[in-house]
Every structure is written in structure tokens, then in C-alpha cells.
Amino acid sequence: MEYTAKDSINRERMPRHVAIIMDGNGRWAKQHGLVRMLGHRQGVETVHNITEAAAELGIKYLTLYAFSTENWNRPQQEVDALMELLVDTIAKETDTLMKNNVRLLTIGDLSRLPKKAEEKFRGCMAQTAGNTGLKLVIALSYSARWEIIRAVKQMSNEVKEGKLRIEDINEETVSEHLTTAGIPDPDLLIRTSGELRISNFLLWQSAYSELYFTPCLWPDFTVEEFYKALLDYQSRERRFGKTSEQLLSDQKKY
Ligand code: FPP
Predict the structure, then answer these.
(1) 66 CA distance to ligand 1 centroid (A)?
(2) Number of compact structural domains in the chain
(3) Which domain holds residue 90?
(4) How many CB atoms lie within 10 A of CB 87?
(5) pLDDT tens digits for 105-128?
(6) How far is the CA of 91 from the centre of ligand 1 (A)?
């Protein structure tokens, strides 16, 4: 039998939450002499395969950066086509989500989406709300700075209304006011296409995430590449600011 990185993955040390910046659809299309939209279409295939693999491995949360606040500035034709693709994909994939016990969640400013897209996502979230397996979190019209500003405004209002005391504001309070409230911070953050940037994605939540960059363009990011990223993650020591010695003695205590 052929070797697959999957065989080396330690199921006891899976990241609970993997977040992915899916990048490189446009360049993939260009490489293949195709229009950009066909790159995005191919990217949907990767979304399908990676979601399935994550569910199968028992990963609890998979967050995908599908559309950033800044993406609204792309040519109108591409924005419209991407919105249509998102609606089509959700319509086509809802049955698969149900079959695989996957729950769909979204983060971002859903109200900025065209009505039809917003309704489709809300419908799918309601339909899959009872599923208990993987939580697939799609970031739509999302940017970390947008979400932090929104959280600051909400907290300020609560202070003004006497519902929150300034001295009680801590990390937990801020986390609870982000659109990711209730979702654990990502353990592993992957970006495809060779760009070495975070691009306004989960800035607060990725404070201690392990970062993994691959030159692979998103449509070329196979399940095998995903396994390699997980293996790389498992080879790292997560210290959260502590020393290796402290971590060892912590382990002995439990
Ligand atoms: C980045 O590639 C990709 C996007 C902005 C869109 C990604 C969206 C999908 C793959 C559809 C996802 C669907 C669901 C339901 C989650 P790029 O266009 O920035 O590529 P480039 O940098 O090579 O131009």
C-alpha cells in the first residue's frame, strides 16, 4: 500500500480548531489559462475535500476565510460571481453537511451580503443547527479589525448602560464580544499560495496559533497536503509563553 501522511497522524494530538486562509484561486486559473472564476470553482472542490477530511479526523472546528471585508473592492463582476458561487455551493452541499453531521456557522457581517446569499446561509445554519459533528465556520464579509471595532463599540455601550464595569473587562470579555464568541481559538492557522501574511484574519484569536504556510495554491491543496500540515503541527511544541521545562513538569503533574 502507498504511504499516506494520514497513517502518521496521532489522533490523540489533533488540533481542536483549524483555520484556513484559502488563497491562490486566481493564480491557479491563470496558470491553467482559465478565467479567475474557474479558479474559485476549483477551490470549492478543495473546500469539499478538506471539510470531509477534517470531519473524518474528528477535528471539532474548521474555519474558512471565504470572503473578506476587503474583497468587496474587487471588480463588481467577480464579487457578483463569487456571491453566486457561494449560494450555489451552499444549496448543493447542504445534503452532504447533513449526511456528515456537520454544523454550519458563519462569522462576519452577513447583513452586507446580497439578500439571497444571506438567506441561503441563514437557512443552512438553521437546518444544520442540530448536527453534533464538525463545526464548519465560514468567514463572510469578515475582517478582524471590523470585528474588533464592533466589539469595542458593543462593550462601550454596555458600559454606558451600566451593564458592564470597565474594571471587569478582561480577555474573556473581549472574546465574548467577537463574532467567534463560543468558538475556541484556532490551534493551527494555514495559509496557502505562498503569501506570508495574516491579512486581517482572526487577529485576536490567533495570538497563540501555530502558523503553517504552504506554496500550494488552494485548488491544488489536496487532502494529502492537509495531512502534511497536521503532521507539521504535531511536531511542534506549544509553549504559550512558558519554558520547555515548565511544560514537562506541568505534564508530570497531571
Ligand atoms: C482567494 O483566492 C480566494 C477567495 C477570495 C475566495 C475563496 C472562495 C471559495 C473557494 C469559495 C468557497 C465556498 C464556500 C462555500 C466556503 P484569490 O482570488 O485571492 O487568488 P489570487 O490571490 O491567486 O488572485
Answers:
(1) 6
(2) 1
(3) 13-143+186-241
(4) 18
(5) 999 999 999 999 999 999 999 999
(6) 18
